[in-house]
Amino acid sequence: MHFRIQKDYLVRGVQDVMKAVSSRTTIPILTGIKLVADESGVTLTGSDSDISIESFIPIEENGKEIAEVLQAGSVVLQAKYFSEIVKKLPKEQVELEVGSHFMTRIKSGKSEVNLNGLDPEEYPHLPQLEEHHVFHIPGDLLKHMIRQTVFAVSTSETRPILTGVNWKVYNSELVCIATDSHRLALRKARVEGRNIPEDFRANVVIPGKSLTELSKLLDESEEMVDIVVTENQVLFRTKHILFFSRLLEGNYPDTSRLIPNESKTDIFVNTKELLQAIDRASLLARDGRNNVVKFSTLDSDMIEISSNSPEIGKVVEEVQCEQIEGEELKISFSAKYMMDALKALDSTEIKISFTGAMRPFLIRTGNDDTIVQLILPVRTY
Amino acid sequence: MHFRIQKDYLVRGVQDVMKAVSSRTTIPILTGIKLVADESGVTLTGSDSDISIESFIPIEENGKEIAEVLQAGSVVLQAKYFSEIVKKLPKEQVELEVGSHFMTRIKSGKSEVNLNGLDPEEYPHLPQLEEHHVFHIPGDLLKHMIRQTVFAVSTSETRPILTGVNWKVYNSELVCIATDSHRLALRKARVEGRNIPEDFRANVVIPGKSLTELSKLLDESEEMVDIVVTENQVLFRTKHILFFSRLLEGNYPDTSRLIPNESKTDIFVNTKELLQAIDRASLLARDGRNNVVKFSTLDSDMIEISSNSPEIGKVVEEVQCEQIEGEELKISFSAKYMMDALKALDSTEIKISFTGAMRPFLIRTGNDDTIVQLILPVRTY
After folding, report:
1. Chain A: residue nearest B312 by CA?
2. What pLDDT, on a 0 to 100 scale, did the predictor assign at position A289?
3. Where would I find the DNA polymerase III beta sliding clamp N-terminal domain in this sequence (chains A, B) (predicted)?
4. B179 occurs within a structural domain
């Protein structure tokens, strides 16, 4: 293998595939990045066997030459060293050549690095997915949907299925649901498809970690991302990147009954003011008792948020609301869950719907039903 | 105690004194910040008993009202909670009032926080220094002098005296020296004084940690900092801050004989090019053998920097020099020490003077003798 390449593109490609490389893998070759050069360009691959990322650098893009492949071939290079070196090379042009025993020479200006390479034949093959059904979704929307749900997955391995986000496709609609059994985040969107039968259904659970890494690779652009779902793998494909993730096995709990249809108290309030008041109220509560704050309606348009940590002190916050409809209310909940939910809702005003102090409550944005955040209260009153 | 104050000033003052507060102190009251209000303003104090910082907020500055003291008094508040709360208060105006049992109410807008305070009488008194001799030095110069020396102190407690920086004053000159016995940094500057006798000498050792914290408090401004040195304390005074540090006990080694007066090889080279070449050469060497790189003259104006880690690979870097004078040379040294030294020298071009492969070498900037960096080589050739 022998090629010349623009450093910027190589750096970007290496950074992308590095997101899948773990230094704590039990399979030694997976600490490396696989490079393959052929007449069309250079392909980089990184994998921790749960997530695999392939980044393709074409020989030219929009008429601009990016790479020149002098000899096709492949090699695996230690990701840790290779990624550091590429970033620090002195010139815009990089030359990479594999010699005997996979010894790889990387040249740029007056800098010459020789890295011991590994046999690319040892590197595991990426999953080959049958592309019967392909969905499309704009990259920026996908990125938002991930951000608005993935924070609510469980971090505990007691119920492994809850460490993933449940993705359901039916009737051209994608529904993403995450819950750690104390709170739930739900986000819906329309998806387009290719060759999708009328009655097509998909119901899979994608590891939260995979979605978090995928989200880092996505730009805030409307460019379409292709999604291929199979029984045990999901593939996301952008212009130059293939992102594979294994799926979690098992049945995701039915969450539909959790979401109340009616409410007894509805509060309309400015998101930022509520968020900041809860943030302050929780300052003294963070070390003790699970970071719980008390929330109560004061009169027609005022709420009080408070916390009390006898050893440290107490905080009382009043927040003016747009409107309070329905019954008076006193309730307690995790300040962290509430702040997570408020940050996920991209809206200046939000609506909180309570059905009593012991029942889960909903946080939504005005009349938009594509996003719902649900939190279970804590018994303190 | 009861006062109103502009939040910005309170936040800044708290941030300043927080640099002295440690959560790992054995004296519980030192986890707090002491507040004292009187007719002139509000004074904040933080201390870990090695470093003490006092920040003064006047009731007015340049005709602008900053604070209004309604009742003089004092209290000690938990630094961790107080500092977080002040930062997050909603309005520009903050009101603070101490009630019975030092319970302290902090109000801002519709936010009210009550913190359990501690008895200020329990708080240790700051050292009272006799100001016989006071030196002055511009704040920005002091900040630079610290940055250019403190990195070279020892991090090991085997010889505690080397964890400090040796400050010597004689003949209106301040000399700062730091060494961990493998390298040495020296920086000199003129200082002005008040009531300084002709034959005045000072020779103290200031803990590196104290200087690092002091440096964070100093602005890049020419405003003068007063320095008072006593037998076991040093005080730095800026417009609104008093910074006390204890001194290290013991005799600092005489380093003057370490610095060679002659040289056999002098190399003039661009700082950034050398720094980047060494950075790359050291990439593969970091995990093994103390991060050592080899350095050799190639011909009249070229040097080669290389490293070899048999398991990973090797790097060879060539750097074009301005000039090489004297004998040919092959030497090995710690890449980290060299990079630290080069970063400390604020100069685009530097001169390295060697007196053989086994002797310490000097790195300087042109003909400026106020700063010297010295490194001991490592035997590998």
Report:
1. A116
2. 56
3. 1-127
4. yes
List, for residues B56-90, the tens digit of each pLDDT value.
999 999 999 999 999 999 999 999 999 999 999 99
Q: Which pLDDT score is estimated for B289?
A: 56
What distance in Å separates the CA atoms of residue A57 and residue B61, rounded to the nearest whole number? Answer: 60
Q: Which string of DSSP letters, residue by residue, matches B142-178?
A: HHHHHHHHHTTS---SSSGGGGEEEEEEETTEEEEEE
Query: Exposed/middle/buried for A288, CB within 10 Å: 0-12, 13-18, 19+?
Result: middle
CB contact (8 A) between residue B317 and residue A111 = yes
Evaluate whether B20 touches B34 at the Cβ level (below 8 Å).
no
Cβ pair B115:A312 closer than 8 A = yes
B41 and B112 assigned to the same domain: yes
Predicted confidence at residue B315, as pLDDT, reads 95
Res. B381: pLDDT tops 60: no
CB contact under 8 A, A84 and B283: yes
Structural domain harbouring A57 = 2-122
- Quote ipTM for the complex: 0.87
Q: How far is A226 from chain B (nearest CA, A)?
A: 38
Q: Is the pLDDT of residue B177 over 80?
A: yes
Q: Tell me whether B81 touches chain A (CB under 8 Å).
A: yes
Contact B315 A277 (CB under 8 A): no
CA distance readout (Å), A372 to A147, A325, B58: 13, 19, 50
pLDDT score recorded for residue B333: 95
CB contact under 8 A, A315 and B81: no
Average pLDDT over chain B, rounded to whole? 94
Cα gap A356→A354, rounded to integer Å: 6
Residue B127 belongs to a domain: no
The β-bridge partners of A296 are: A304, A330
Using an 8 Å CB-CB cutoff, list chain A residues near B280.
85, 88-90, 111, 113
| CATH code: domain of residue A85 | 3.10.150.10
Q: Is residue A381, in this structure, part of any structural domain at all?
A: no
List, for residues A79-103, the tens digit of each pLDDT value.
Answer: 999 999 999 999 999 999 999 999 9
Query: Does residue B218 share a domain with residue B107?
Result: no
CB atoms A111 and B283 under 8 Å: no
Give the number of A-B residue pairs with CB atoms closer than 8 Å: 96
Residues in B touching A78 (Cβ below 8 Å) = 312
Put simply, whether B311 touches A (Cβ < 8 Å) is: yes
**What pLDDT is attached to residue B379?**
83
